[in-house]
Amino acid sequence: MSISKREQILRWSQTGHIKEQDVNKSLELTEAKITPSQWYDFISKNLIVFGFFSLAVGIIFFLAYNWMDMTTFTKFALVQSLLGLSVLFYTQVKIHSHFSTALLFFVALLIGALLALFGQTYQTGKDPWQLFMLWAAFITPIAIISKNSSLWLLWLALLNLTMYLAMDSYSWFFGGFFHQEGNVIVYALVNGFAGMFFYFMLRNKQSNKLSIVFYVAMLVAFYTFTWVAFYGIFASKLTTVSLLLYLVWMGITYYLFRIKILNVLLLSAWALSVIAFIQFVLGKLMSDAFNEAAFLILSLSLIGMTTFAIKWLMSLLKEEKGELHE
Amino acid sequence: MNNLWNQLKQANLTEGDLPIETQDHKPWYLKIVQGFAGWVASLFMLGFFALLLSNFIVKPTTLQLMIVGIACSVVAYFIFKNKNSDFLDQFALSLSLAGQIVFAFSLFENIFQISTTKMFILSIYQLCLALILPHYVHRLITSSFAMLILLTTTFEVGLSGVGAGVLAFIVSGVWLYDYKWGKKSALIEPIAYGLVIGLVYIQGYILTNHYYLHSSRLVNNQWLLENSSLISSLLVSLAFIHLVWITLKEYKVSLTSKEGLLALVFCLMLIAVSFKISGISTGLLIVFLGFIRNRLILMAIGLFSVIGFFSWYYYNLDLTLLVKSLVLMALGLVLILAYLIFSYAYKTNKLDKIKLTGVSQFRWFKWVGLTTVAILLIAINLNIAKKEALIAHGDKLLFRLGPVDPRSIMQGDYMRLRFDMAATLESELRKLNENNTIAKKSGKAIVEKGENNVVKYVALYDNQKLKANQYLIPYKSDGYRIIIVTAAYYFQEGKRAHYQKGRFGEFHYQDGEMLLVNLVDKDFKVL
Question: pTM (2 decimals)?
Answer without folding.
Answer: 0.84
